[in-house]
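Lecture notes, unit on protein representations.

Consider one protein chain, 169 amino acids long.
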Amino acid sequence: MIERKERGKKIFDILKNSEKPVSGTYLADLFNVSRQVIVQDIAILKAQNNDIISTNRGYKLFSKGIKKIIKVRHDDSEIRTELNEIVDFGATVEDVFVIHETYGKIRVELNIKSRRDVELLIEKINSKFSKPLKNLTSSFHYHTIVAENENILNEVENRLREIGILVEE
């Protein structure tokens, strides 16, 4: 049996990637635990400020705000600038993905909401032997941006356009 913390992360990932509610019974069967254990796991996830709602059909993430996918291009030295510009407007960088000619879509969850999150990502990039995902596709990459309203998304796009990072399609 996997530990509660790891199970919680997997439950969150399942909820995040599901468009429909996920039943507690399904989760219990998947992790070979009781339904009550899943109820406790969900309670812990909620206590960690995850917006999970319970419906009569199961659990799902409550989506706040609106999403937009943007295409961008910049060099490695501009990663901090790009992400800080986005979060400074109050938007969240949900993910980064590339469309690889051979492998198709390669996506990584980021969930960057603040300058602190940006710095933590930059530290990870600088401390590892790996390169940013964008380097697989001549620096072209995409972000799913989540914001409270359309005005914030427009401000983000305008700013990224001003600094020459946004790719117009």
